[in-house]
User: What shape does this take?
Amino acid sequence: MLFSRTMQCPVSATAGTSGQTATPDRRSALDRRSLFVLLGLLLFSLALHLVIVTYGNVLVSDEHYYVPEARSIIQDRQLLHPEHPSLAKLFIAAGISIFGDNPWGWRLLPIMFGTLTVAFFYLICLDIAGKRTAFVGSLFLITENLLFLNLGL
Assistant: This one.
């Protein structure tokens, strides 16, 4: 359990009297220190993306497909390529509607969801492998090139 402060695991009948509980496994508990580490990782990820959000003021990678689709959703209320999933296009269209047709509008909502991806990854690693592995793995995820590019440059 990710957010549980105490976990009780019943001891098997061969280990002693039934009803006893073993000491909880603390590696998966989201304590205060782990929460601060997670917050630091999220701020680091967000800062890396926000520093270069206006890089070049041009479309990069899959933005060549998704931004025109988002513009079509806003203007014509139709998809140019309905065979592709439209959730990312809808997020970009929402960003364009809120922040305008510029790099901030194209990239801010994908950056926010990418930052949430780091949070979920950290929590999963924390539950499976412990604090150190969750930190190092999340740091690798933040700086991994393909994910960094696809989550809003």
Remarks:
- The first strand starts at residue 9 and ends at 10.
- The longest helix spans residues 103-129.
- The beta strands are 9-10, 21-22.
- The CA atoms of residues 10 and 82 lie 52 Å apart.
